[in-house]
Amino acid sequence: GAGVSQSPRYKVAKRGQDVALRCDPISGHVSLFWYQQALGQGPEFLTYFQNEAQLDKSGLPSDRFFAERPEGSVSTLKIQRTQQEDSAVYLCASSPTRITNNEQFFGPGTRLTVL
Amino acid sequence: ELKVEQNPLFLSMQEGKNYTIYCNYSTTSDRLYWYRQDPGKSLESLFVLLSNGAVKQEGRLMASLDTKARLSTLHITAAVHDLSATYFCAVDKNAGGTSYGKLTFGQGTILTVHP
Question: Region B40-55: what's the mean pLDDT?
Answer without folding.
Answer: 90
